[in-house]
């Protein structure tokens, strides 16, 4: 499929590299043509402006700072699937600067299928993900398309509910990053499911 990225930073490069290798056509969109072209050269895609990348194809990866996410998302035409990987982190105390970015984007661009995914791990992880890494996805529409793009990165999609639950993924990222930065082991919070719960989910 055709995928545009809004942003030419670390997340755009990490994910686009896999998508090009999987056979997708990717346009790296940036506000600085030179930076976008450089990243496009490294990943094997083409480069364009933010406006060109927004309407390049079926899917757009929104990979800009969360504080400009709603503004930049307005470039995306209705009918497009928009992957929101942003985290609106307050780096002073690892809380959220805005409580529900994905839902805010969705309200601002009706007709765009906003999907929250790829926000839980760092770009270095996406560059070279460990085998079997699960990627939670929150979406009302576009789940299957993004699930395939998760597999194309070498990971396992985990459907995690509708877009109303994206705020939980955003909060989870803030919690996990705060623990990780203070030296804690985030993975230790989640024992293997069989060991913890047998075959019956908790509830
Ligand atoms: N890096 C991670 O480990 C990670 C993990 C999960 C989620 N995220 C989230 O993913 C998003 C992107 O992160 P990143 O690490 O890729 O950031 P990054 O490397 O700093 O790249 C940010 C991109 O946004 C562009 N940008 C910044 N301000 C802009 C504005 N006002 N208008 C238009 N474009 C603007 C930058 O353009 P220029 O190149 O022109 O400056 C750059 O292309 C963030 O919301 C972050 O919270 C990051």
UniProtKB/TrEMBL annotation:
UniProt keyword list: Oxidoreductase
Transmembrane segments: none
Keyword Oxidoreductase part of the UniProt annotation: yes
Gene Ontology MF term list: oxidoreductase activity
Pfam family for this entry, one: F420_oxidored
InterPro entries referenced in this protein's UniProt entry, alphabetically: NAD(P)-bd_dom_sf (IPR036291), P5C_Rdtase_cat_N (IPR028939), STEAP_metalloreductase (IPR051267)
Name of the molecule in the record: Pyrroline-5-carboxylate reductase catalytic N-terminal domain-containing protein
Domain Pyrroline-5-carboxylate reductase catalytic N-terminal intervals: 2-87
């Amino acid at each position: 499929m055709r995928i545009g990225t809004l942003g030419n930073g670390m997340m755009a490069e990490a994910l686009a590299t896999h998508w090009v290798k999987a056979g997708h056509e990717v346009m790296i969109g940036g506000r600085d043509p030179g930076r976008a072209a450089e990243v496009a050269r490294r990943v094997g895609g083409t480069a364009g402006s933010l406006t060109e990348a927004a309407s390049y194809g079926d899917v757009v990866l929104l990979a800009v700072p969360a504080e400009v996410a709603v503004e930049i998302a307005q470039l995306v035409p209705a009918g497009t699937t928009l992957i929101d990987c942003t985290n609106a982190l307050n780096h002073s105390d690892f809380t959220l600067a805005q409580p529900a970015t994905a839902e805010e984007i969705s309200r601002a661009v009706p007709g765009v299928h906003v999907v929250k995914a790829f926000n839980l791990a760092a770009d270095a992880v996406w560059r070279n993900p460990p085998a079997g890494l699960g990627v939670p996805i929150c979406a009302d529409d576009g789940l299957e398309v993004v699930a395939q793009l998760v597999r194309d990165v070498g990971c396992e999609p985990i459907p995690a509910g509708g877009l109303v639950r994206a705020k939980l993924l955003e909060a989870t990222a803030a919690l996990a990053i705060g623990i990780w930065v203070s030296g804690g082991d985030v993975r230790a919070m989640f024992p293997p499911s069989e060991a913890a719960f047998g075959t019956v989910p908790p509830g």
